[in-house]
Amino acid sequence: MEQMRFDGRVALVTGAGNGLGRAYAHLLAARGAHLVVNDIGAALDGSGASELPAKQVVEEIKAAGGQAVADAHDVGDREGAAAAVQRALDAFGRIDIVVNNAGYGLSCPFARYPADEFQRLVGVSFLGTVWVTQAAWPHMQKARYGRIVNTSSASVYGLPGNSAYGAAKAAILGLTRALALEGAEFGIKCNAISPSAATRGVAAFPESELRTFLMNYLPPERAAVAVGYLAHEDCALSGECIVSGGGRIARMFIGQTDGVVDPDITIEGLRDNLDKIMDSGRFEILKSNAEAIRYCARQLGFAHPERLFFTLDKR
Ligand SMILES: NC(=O)c1ccc[n+]([C@@H]2O[C@H](COP(=O)([O-])OP(=O)(O)OC[C@H]3O[C@@H](n4cnc5c(N)ncnc54)[C@H](O)[C@@H]3O)[C@@H](O)[C@H]2O)c1
Fold first, then answer.
1. CA count, 13 A, side-chain hemisphere, 29
2. 13, 56, 73, 104: residue to mutate for ligand 1 pocket, most atoms within 8 A of CB
3. Among residues 38, 26, 59, which one has the least CA distance to residue 224?
4. Of 2, 102, 156, 282, which shows the fewest CB atoms inside 10 Å?
5. Does ligand 1 come within 6 angstroms of the Cβ of 163?
6. Cα 250 → chain centroid
7. Contact between residue 45 and residue 104 where contact means Cβ atoms under 8 Å apart
8. Can you give the pLDDT of all 315 residues of the chain as single tens digits?
9. Is the C-beta atom of 127 inside 6 A of ligand 1?
10. How far is the CA of 182 from the centre of ligand 1 (A)?
11. Is 129 near ligand 1, meaning CB less than 6 Å away?
């Protein structure tokens, strides 16, 4: 089987000094990509800074015969994000792939979540993705080629104590889907990953059966496969979120149940039809706002919803 390679491609992986990002950087470099290994060198809670993790991964890549440069900018800072992209342009002359991986979690009950910590987390884990992508975007538009892989998480299903993290990771899905539609005409594909891997957070657990299980079954390299595919020229997807960990790959999707249609529905009618409304036996996976409007219009009995709303896709 012909290997899916990245020769001639330049990739920026943020937060690549540890865990998942490191595995992504190694995978892409081993298959021919030139890498910018970005990492601020923060602790698990996002605090602190060190140039060492990024430099060390660059040394590892070089020792394995790959090409890489280090970058220690904070992607949560708009100028830092732009500088990380500039590093790719200065070192390798182009940017083809952005893997927005930098992020961290901070658990705190919502009622007591400090405002500055909430903003800091969203500022790195969500806005960092925005700033890096926005800096790379014009170059990708000009090249009429780009692959963007963002990092969401299972926390979007609901993770108590992690309101900031879950919100940031859900915001990434909305961003990913908007950029998939905006990027289509420029050959830019934008997807997300919901990874699972035993990284330094798990490594810090006390010895236990759970820790051993996670360390054995969830090495970051197994999750990296999905990033490799989504970053590749052959990637057939855009606007999707791929679940990846331990060798299990699946699709996370956003859809709507068929629900009920009754123009005269009342609050009581809603209550009495709740089972039907919530029944996910029949549902539609929706790719865009326009598709959602068409779906709704069809349910409401419009004869030709596709004629009414086709222009929305182009907005
Ligand atoms: N490990 C999992 O199972 C899992 C699950 C879901 C989502 N994720 C997400 O995957 C990503 C990587 O997770 P990980 O487990 O490898 O974490 P990790 O803590 O091992 O690595 C994250 C790296 O990001 C860097 N970083 C943090 N803030 C940064 C900033 N402002 N600028 C540049 N770099 C920064 C850190 O220094 C660190 O090296 C994160 O976005 C995380 O939320 C991980």
1. 26
2. 104
3. 26
4. 2
5. no
6. 14
7. yes
8. 899 999 999 999 999 999 999 999 999 999 999 999 999 999 999 999 999 999 999 999 999 999 999 999 999 999 999 999 999 999 999 999 999 999 999 999 999 999 999 999 999 999 999 999 999 999 999 999 999 999 999 999 999 999 999 999 999 999 999 999 999 999 999 999 999 999 999 988 989 999 999 999 999 999 999 999 999 999 999 999 999 999 999 999 999 999 999 999 999 999 999 999 999 999 999 989 888 888 888 888 887 776 655 554 554
9. no
10. 27
11. no
- What residue has token string 């219009």? 297
DSSP notation for 166-184: HHHHHHHHHHHHHHHHHHG
Is 123 close to ligand 1, i.e. is its CB under 6 Å away?
no
Give nearest CA residue, ligand 1 atom 1. 197
Probe residue for ligand 1, chosen from 20, 243, 248 as the CB with the greatest number of ligand atoms within 8 Å: 20
Report the separation in Å between the CA atom of 111 and the middle of ligand 1, taken as the mean of its atom positions.
25
Known catalytic membership, residue 113: no
pTM equals 0.96
For 10-252, which CATH class? Answer: alpha beta
Contact 37, 68 (CB under 8 A): yes
Helix ranges (DSSP H) in 189-266: 200-203, 209-217, 220-230
16-69: per-residue pLDDT in tens? 999 999 999 999 999 999 999 999 999 999 999 999 999 999 999 999 999 999
User: Cα separation of 125 and 172, whole Å?
Assistant: 9
Instruction: Indicate which residue of 24, 104, 165, 229 is catalytic.
Output: 165
Q: Tell me the backbone φ, ψ of residue 69, rounded to 5 degrees.
A: -130, 155
Which residue type does 93 have?
G
Single out the residue of 198, 173, 202 nearest to residue 287, CA to CA.
173
